[in-house]
Amino acid sequence: GYNALLVNAAGKCNTAVGTYNLQANTTGCRNTAIGYNVLAQKVDGCNNIGIGTGVLAGIGDSDNNIAMGCSVLSSNTTGSDNTAIGTGSQGSNVSGAGNTSLGYLALLQNATGDNNVAIGRCAGSTSGAFASNKLYIANCGDCSLISGDFTGKTVTIDGATHLCYTLGVSGATTLGTVASGATSDPVLTITSGGVVQKIAATSLGEDNNRYETTGLTNSTINLYGGEYVVLVNPTAPTTVYLPAAPDTGTAFKIKDYGPNALANNITIDGNGKDIDGNGTALINTNYGAIELVYNGTAWFILSFVN
């Protein structure tokens, strides 16, 4: 083609097909330029492949780039190891390296950012000039479907996610905004093997509850709601204070396991809330026990062993 490899001096193994292709090359080697004004201002870059119009046309030296389309990597000067396919893809790149873009105007604004991946029409086109280590999957500039950060090892999915098979998660899982449900909705449980399962709410029973037992000998015991079964060995008369601000549905089973409650009574104090109409309840027999639940205004005894 006209002016192809015009001033080549020591460059080897170059291929130039088309007008102005590799016209400034002097020592660059193993370059392939097909089209119009491809690699036109490169002097000594190596291992570049350009196919199209105005591809890799900028002044400067860079290596190992692949560009296909119109005005692809057209401003690139020193950026190496980039792959860009699609009109205008990485069109503003100057020195960014290791970027991969596939699609019309993908990574258009990137100038100096490194190691980005953009797939789809206009994917990452508005990401700015300096972003690095980012992932963009989209079909228009404001239609991101998936984005990510390779440095932080995070992936954002912009929309509902439907899984047809097993999902394995080895790190911590953080949930954002979770919609409120109904008491009839299924619940998720985790097996001993770490598998998450769905169980119908109607099938839940006591076997699905996590009972935390607390064995205590203090003369004053304050409960906060994390316990469920409370075992007390009263070495002296003991008062158990229920939570001052319990959640509706909070329940406790409190039992003398000494057995010492006959000699050292266990007083259950409602902490400002009534217990069956009284401020307190009493366990005063050995191995005695009491089960009670809070309904939002007061405590009610469900069972009593004396």
Structure commentary:
The chain is an all-beta fold and 306 residues long. The chain has a domain at 209-305: gp9 (Jelly Rolls, Sandwich), CATH 2.60.120. It contains no helices and 21 strands. The protein has strands at residues 15-17, 32-36, 49-53, 66-70, 83-85, 100-102, 117-119, 134-138, 144-149, 154-157, 187-190, 196-199, 213-216, 220-222, 229-232, 238-241, 251-256, 266-269, 280-283, 289-294, 299-305. The protein has a ten-stranded mixed sheet, with no helix packed on it. It has a five-stranded mixed sheet with strand order 13-15-17-20-21, with no helix packed on it. The protein has a four-stranded mixed sheet with strand order 14-16-18-19, with no helix packed on it. Strand 11 (187-190) and strand 12 (196-199) form a beta hairpin.
